[in-house]
Amino acid sequence: MNYDLIIEKMKKNKRLKFEEINYIITNFTNGKISEEEMSTFLMLIYNKGLSYKETLYLTNSMIKSGEFIVFEDLNRIIVDKHSTGGVGDKITLIVSPIVAANGLGVAKMSSRSLGLTGGTIDKLESINGYNVNLNKEEFIKQVNDIGVSVISQTERVAVADKKIYALRDKIGAVDSIPLIASSIMSKKIASGSNVIIIDLKVGKGAFMKDAKSAKKLAKIMIKIGKYWNKSVAVIMTDMNVPLGRSIGNSLEVKETMDFLSGKYRDKRLETLSLTISSYMISLGNNIPLKEAYKNAKRVLDNNEAYDVFKKWIKSQGGNPNNLKEKASTFEVISDKNGFINNIDAEKLAEICSEIGVNRTDKRTEVDYAAGIVLNKTINDKITNGEKLATIYYNETIKKELIKEKILDAFEITGIKNKEKSIIIDVIL
Ligand code: URA
Fold it and tell me: Which of 35, 153, 209, 341 has its C-alpha lying 20 to 30 A from 62's C-alpha?
């Protein structure tokens, strides 16, 4: 096998065999193929695309680059969900106890925040005492007993993906259908669950800008899942607006508890949580979607899901009533009358990164207490002088600049827009 011959073949639009793709992936993972050489390979995929078969070969080779997790001691059907990255996305915290209360198992390895995207592990670490590093026996026992455990991602799953993703980010080759499909599916298949629900964000700030290309990506991921005998559903969701009312680690845990206990439920967050839970329950328990929806709603409304959440957190050493939430606050007040027709999630995420919610190139530690709570959301009426948002912070910040950016993120107009559902489509 020879690197130059493989590249020549790609340039001539000839299809690659598994052995050729595997040669590149294996040798990039072990350091024998340089970043420069790999960039050429990735840019050829980015510009020319890959056939379905080649995308499957790429996925399989990435799975082979790391550990394959087998949950042989688990007595529950394992279901998983993956989000391609939302702002204020606390869905894992909400749906895991809902599906666990329906007899299924969530044995999840999650990641930390990076750039504009939050990470479930940071959210959980904002709960004092929560241990993200259970050993295998503790992890499996907790999933069997309670139905859910979320720990920090092992570095050993789909090893090639981490290296490739970092390089894609550097060379601007992220938004490519075969590269996204192989990246997501290699991690999910190697992680061992039977059912995989993908929350595919579509919109301005997402990797997938339009519904047509998102649908194409969804179909390829489902086909790869079928090859591996997994039940996969892709829920295409609108990502232009933040999910729920809070963005920030401890603030999102608080919103999760308000949501599960029934104290306050943001409408869009409820729609998405129940949709994702329903597909996980329907495919996991092999029951019709309508019945699964009713079961999800029932355990949410009778507090069974909230009880599972509390048991889960306690079992991992955390106390949900003791969050890392010490912060100063200031309020941003509306200077307009009208209706909120849009909230730019990307702009809010940029502010959050500035005040320490996520990790960036310059920041390796997160501020668990920092973030934004929206007092008004999309389609709400607002009057001049009413509170739009509250900022939680600990660093020295330029308040005037942040205020300006928040006001800029809210689009307020005289006429109320027609309400759009957060769910764009579901592909099975
Ligand atoms: N999420 C992933 O895990 N990989 C991608 O390439 C894009 C989104």
Answer: 209
* pLDDT, tens digit (0-9, with 9 covering 90-100), for 174-219: 899 999 999 999 999 999 999 999 999 998 767 888 999 999 999 9
pLDDT in tens, 309-362: 999 999 999 999 999 999 999 999 999 999 999 999 989 999 999 999 988 777
**Starting from the edge strand earliest in sequence, which strands make up the sheet with 371-374, in order?**
246-247, 371-374, 387-393, 328-333
Query: Can you name the CATH fold of 79-315?
Result: Pyrimidine Nucleoside Phosphorylase; Chain A, domain 2 (3.40.1030)
Is 418 noted as a catalytic residue in this protein? no
The single residue of 61, 65, 176, 183 carrying the catalytic annotation is 183
Closest C-alpha residue for ligand 1 atom 7 = 180
Pocket test for ligand 1, best of 59, 114, 174, 220 (most atoms within 8 A of CB): 174
Contact present, 186 and 62 (Cβ < 8 Å):
yes
Give the number of other CB atoms < 10 A from CB of residue 268.
22
Q: What is the pLDDT of residue 73?
A: 86
CA distance 391 to 320: 22
Max CA separation in the chain (angstroms):
69
Residue 309: count of CB within 10 angstroms of its CB: 27
**For atom 5 of ligand 1, which residue has the closest CA?**
180
Q: What angle do CA 283, 207, 187 make, to 5 degrees?
A: 50
Helices 3-11 and 35-48, interaxial angle, to 10°? 20
Answer whether CATH 3.90.1170.30 is correct for domain 328-413: yes
- Domain spans of the chain? 3-48, 79-315, 328-413
Active site residue 169: no
207 lines ligand 1 (CB under 6 A): yes
Q: Is 180 in the pocket of ligand 1 (CB under 6 A)?
A: yes
Q: Tokens 């339009």 appear where?
A: 210
Is 168 an active-site residue? yes
Which protein residue has the closest C-alpha to ligand 1 atom 2?
A: 184
